[in-house]
Design a protein that fits this description.
With 173 residues, the protein is an all-alpha fold. Helix content is 82%, strand content 0%.
Length: 173
């Protein structure tokens, strides 16, 4: 069964994924530009932090948060680019191709990397929350991403095995 080229679900998915990819790219650009901007405007940033009763060490935390956010956006971009490409193969009528198994496995590793990145990010945010008078973050590490990674790794194996079985059947016909 092949998907219709005008399938509204696939068209909507492609549009939403393209928008998400745009936002991820924007996030990468914004955080990458913000890091040197914060460092160049160090004196002004420190003055603003001092007005809020925040110690100067928070400047380093802000730079670390920006760098980790840039990394998170880059991982998000890679994840959604792979998903966009998988959706495109569905629209073409043949999602069970070996490259989709590779994409799903890559998405699993991206989720694992994102989870690993979230650990220091949450630590820095909690530290920053502790030194700021008005901040009250509820940042925490979620392990649901690891469950998603497991599902993606299993789906990659299903796609790989399904492709192998289909190739075997086509070879015997």
């Amino acid at each position: 069964m092949t998907a219709k080229p005008t399938d509204p679900l696939l068209a909507t998915a492609r549009i939403l994924l393209a928008i998400i990819l745009g936002f991820m790219g924007l996030g990468i650009a914004a955080t990458t530009i913000a890091i040197p901007a914060v460092l160049i405007a160090r004196a002004q940033v420190l003055a603003e932090l001092a007005k809020e009763g925040v110690p100067p060490e928070a400047l380093g935390a802000i730079v670390v948060i920006l760098a980790l956010a840039a990394g998170a956006c880059a991982l998000g971009f890679l994840f959604f680019r792979n998903l966009y490409r998988i959706v495109s193969t569905v629209g073409e009528g043949d999602p069970f191709v070996p490259v989709n198994a590779t994409r799903l496995a890559a998405m699993g590793w991206i989720v694992v990397a994102f989870h690993a990145l979230s650990i220091p990010l949450v630590g820095v945010v909690k530290w920053l929350d502790g030194v700021m008078e008005k901040a009250h973050s509820d940042a925490s590490v979620s392990f649901s991403g690891l469950l998603l990674a497991l599902v993606l790794f299993i789906l990659a194996r299903v796609f790989r095995e399904g492709t192998r079985m289909r190739d075997e059947v086509e070879g015997t016909v």
